[in-house]
Design brief:
143 residues, mainly alpha, Arc Repressor Mutant, subunit A, two-stranded antiparallel sheet, 7% strand
Length: 143
Amino acid sequence: MPEKNVERLATDLGAAVAQLMRHLRAASPQGELTPTQRAVLSRIHTGGPATIAALARAELVRPQSMRLTIGALEERGILARSPHPTDGRQVVFSLTEEGRRVVGAVRQAKHDWLAEALADRLTAEERQTLDTAAGLLRRLLPE
């Protein structure tokens, strides 16, 4: 593929992925969580309990800002604090049962929107093409 076509494909693919992500975010329960709160819950769900400092670094925000985000989630009963396993000066935050329910609801809403869009807007042949493309997209990700 000529260089110009690769550049065009990169631009088009980047724009399509960004639009898809916006629609997926919009599909999650309205008013339930801010984007930062969703990111924190997802990170704790996949990575396990974490400190405010670790979450702030991962999300590229100041610890003070992360404290506010964590505080709001803790107040709603979505996160719980516990002593750090090796450093008594710190605490770690993990998902509560309600937190796991919220994460599940957000993910299910995104999944439902995408499954419905695939079924309603694409032919069987187009879905097969997209299935192949999904494998190619995964190959683009760093290992």
